[in-house]
Structure formats: C-alpha cells, structure tokens
Amino acid sequence: MKVLYFAWLRERLNRASDEVSPPPEVVTLADLVAWLRARDEALDLAMANPAIFKLSRDARIVSWDTPIDGASEVAILPPMTGG
Amino acid sequence: MKVLYFAWLRERLNRASDEVSPPPEVVTLADLVAWLRARDEALDLAMANPAIFKLSRDARIVSWDTPIDGASEVAILPPMTGG
Amino acid sequence: MIRVTPDAFDPGAEANIFQAASTEAGAMVTFTGLVRSRPDDPISALILECYPALAENELAAIRTAAVARFDLVDAAIIHRYGRLVPGETIMMVVTLAAHRQAAFDGAQFLMDYLKTDAPFWKQEETRSGLRWVEAKSEDDDARARWQR
Amino acid sequence: MIRVTPDAFDPGAEANIFQAASTEAGAMVTFTGLVRSRPDDPISALILECYPALAENELAAIRTAAVARFDLVDAAIIHRYGRLVPGETIMMVVTLAAHRQAAFDGAQFLMDYLKTDAPFWKQEETRSGLRWVEAKSEDDDARARWQR
C-alpha cells in the first residue's frame, strides 16, 4: 500500500510517499495512522494535532474510521488552501 | 416642467410625457402627482395604487415629499424590472 | 464603470479587461443576466425600456455605495436596453475585492438594488403579443436585507 | 465540467463558452481567484501543490452536490496548479441557473466546499523564501453554513 504526504507534511518528512505493508490488526485508516506514527518519530511529531488532517483512500476523502479494505493508495492531507 | 411616463403607465396614457405648469400651491412631488391626477382621469385610474410608483426629479430618484424646487424634469416610474 | 447602452457587448471580454486593470484584487465575481426562453412558455424577444439619464445616475450611486460598503477594489455595471433575443446578455455586474466574501456580497448587493432602483422595464414578445414582466415582491425583500 | 490543470486558461473565454452552451438559464455567476501581491507584503509567485486524482474526484462530487441542491442548469470548475505570478488566474467556478439567487448560492457553495475539501496547497514565493499559506478557520465556518 502506498501512503502519500502533501505540502508541509511532505516537507517535514522529506519524502512524498511510503510503501507500507500494515499488519492485519490495522483495520481502519485511523489504525493505519496510529501504526505509521508509532514507526516514525517525524510523522508522529508532525501529526501532533491529528484533528487538522483529512485522509483519502484511493483518491476519495473518507472519514478516519473507514476500513482500509484493500486500498492501494492512502493520503494524509494537511488543511487545504485552494481556491 | 416636463413630466415623463414609462412602461405600462406610458401605454395606458398613450403618451410618453406632458409639458405642465403647476400652480404655486404645488410644492412637493406628492402635490404634483395629486394635481396631475385631478386633471387626468386616465392617470388617476392608472395610479390607483400610488405606493408602487417611484418618482424622479431631474434624473434622480427622490422621495415623494421632496420639493419640486424648480425641477425641469419629473418622472413617474412603475415598478422596475431590470437586471 | 457604468454603461447603459442599446449595443451588444461581450461579457467575457469585459470581465477580462476589468480583471487586468487591477493587481490588488484576489477575487472577482461576475453576474450576467440572460434572455431566457422556456420550452413551456417560449418568447421570441425581450424588449427593455429605459430612462437612460436616470439609469446612469442610479447605477453610479449603487456602484459607489457597494464599493464603500464592501471595500471593493472596483465594480462595474453594464446594462442594455432595446430588443434582445433569447441567449443574449441583458446586463452584467463585476466586482473585484481582496477576498471572496466581499466580492460575492458586493455583486449581490448591486443586483438587489439594481432590480428595484434601476429604471428598466421588460416586455416579453410572444406569439400572442407583448406582455409586461411584473415586478416581484421578492426583489423588494432581497433589497431590504441590506438595510441596516 | 471539471478541469485540474497546470496550464493557463482564459476566464472570459471559458465563461462565454459555458454561457453559450445553454439557453435555459437566465443567470450566470462566475467566481475567479487571482494571484494577489500587496505592496506592503509583495510576493513574486504563488506555488500550488495538488493531488490531481483526488482533486478531480472531489471537485466532481462538489459540483454534483451544488447542481442538485440549487437546481442549477450547469456548473463548472477549473483549477490550476504549479507556479503562478501575480495577476494570473488561479481558478474559477461558473454556475448557470434559471434565477439569480440560485446562481449566486451555487457559486458560493462551490467556493466554500472547494476551500476546505479540494486538495490544493499554496506556497508564497517572497524575497526571503517560500512560506506555506495557512488555512483559515473562517473557511471551515463558511463551509459549515451549508450543513443542514
């Protein structure tokens, strides 16, 4: 599974994506974020205020409690500033 | 003084304007309208609901209680439907 | 800029010219009014009567009020009169502001005042003749929401 | 129509094409977002990062919701990404409706959702380097007003 990082989150991590294989106990996107943060101190710090981030699964924004369900691409999205 | 009529008021009167010389007791635009209605039954009928009309003096919309004050052009304006 | 004219105009080109004249704005809103013919009640034309001298004065006053109230960078109104066929542009307003809410509010304010205070009167040309378009009480209500 | 692109576009020409495609609408509203450089805090460019696949999906969903909610005749969104200089057009939304309030409301709804749910991130290029534009809490508030 590919995990994408954008904007200042990408900058803080010094990379745009990770290729990961979460264990079976990682069921929801919230589980995935917790698992990623536990493995990576820079990500853990950058997401100290998790409520500001939205998540997408296969290029659709979904709620944090959505099951991963075989997703191939998940993205962690800092607050957006388009328009 | 010229008095202009527009839209369906113009049609009902069969003319676009009148040239009038109101007597000195006609002080405000409301006085002018009352004086015009008293002279002209078609206008009196067409303005049976006077509250829907706006008035202009020398090409500015003003309130009915505005003095005529040497105006050269007054218009009686049915409800507008621009835009 | 205020323009009251019987001539057709190009709304996209007007908006582009207006936009290019300012580098201080972050937001532009345009409203364009179009002659509409519905299949269930078709019209062949819309005929707009106008009192041009008054229209120019009132639109200029409305524009000045909008610029001051919403701190607009600029605002413009173009309004046609005469005979227009379905699909033609009747009028447009354009607002430029630093941010989006002021641009939207300014354009809506211009439209709401224009509907009740700009001396234009519409007639619809149908197969059975001409009929005056009636003023809507909701236009008075829309204007009233800006009164403090 | 949804377009997410690094290429410049002509907002006036796009609006005209959009308008010409429909004869059922009486009202068109456009919103155009522009790169702004203020004299007291000048920028040399705005750099927009984007997640294109997500942007296209989310903008299409927002557009569909606006068309249904406000009974729009049509709606379109064009949004650029990449490096843009002051005066350039960042994005535009266009709505076509039978009457003016639906066209205005539809355009504001599109903008309010786009601000919080479309995956674009702005960086300002200044003499002292790049800085991320911060999200505004008022954008969340603007979006919240449409939630029933």
How would you sum up this structure, described in words?
The complex is a heterotetramer, with 2 copies of chain A (83 residues) and 2 copies of chain C (148 residues). Chain A is 29% helix and 23% strand. Chain A has a single domain (2-77), classed as Beta-grasp domain (Ubiquitin-like (UB roll)). Chain A is an alpha+beta fold. In chain C, helix 2 runs antiparallel to helix 3 (100-117) and helix 3 crosses helix 4. With 148 residues, chain C is an alpha+beta fold. The longest helix of chain C is centred in the middle third of the chain and has 19 residues, at 52-70. In chain C, the strands form 2 sheets. Chain C has a 4-stranded mixed sheet, with helices on both faces. Chain C is built from 4 helices and 8 strands; from the N terminus they run βαββαβββαββα. The chains are: A alpha+beta (83), C alpha+beta (148). The C-D interface holds C 10-16, 19-20, 23-38, 86-87, 89, 98, 100-101, 103-104, 107-108, 111, 142 and D 10-16, 19-20, 23-38, 86-87, 89, 98, 100-101, 103-104, 107-108, 111, 142. Chains C, D: GO terms for molecular function: molybdopterin synthase activity. Chains C, D: Belongs to the MoaE family. Chains C, D: Converts molybdopterin precursor Z into molybdopterin. This requires the incorporation of two sulfur atoms into precursor Z to generate a dithiolene group. The sulfur is provided by MoaD.
Tell me the layout of helices and strands.
The complex is a heterotetramer, with two copies of chain A (83 residues) and two copies of chain C (148 residues).
Chain A: E1 2-5, H1 7-13, E2 17-19, H2 29-39, H3 41-46, E3 54-57, E4 60-62, E5 73-77
Parallel strand pairs in A: 1-5
Antiparallel strand pairs in A: 1-2, 3-4, 3-5
Chain C: E1 2-5, H1 11-20, E2 27-34, E3 45-50, H2 52-70, E4 74-80, E5 82-84, E6 89-97, H3 100-117, E7 120-126, E8 129-132, H4 137-144
Parallel strand pairs in C: 1-4
Antiparallel strand pairs in C: 2-6, 3-5, 3-7, 4-6, 7-8
Helix pairs in contact in C: 2-3, 3-4
EC number (chains C, D): 2.8.1.12
Subunit structure (chains C, D): Heterotetramer of 2 MoaD subunits and 2 MoaE subunits. Also stable as homodimer. The enzyme changes between these two forms during catalysis.
Function (chains C, D): Converts molybdopterin precursor Z into molybdopterin. This requires the incorporation of two sulfur atoms into precursor Z to generate a dithiolene group. The sulfur is provided by MoaD.
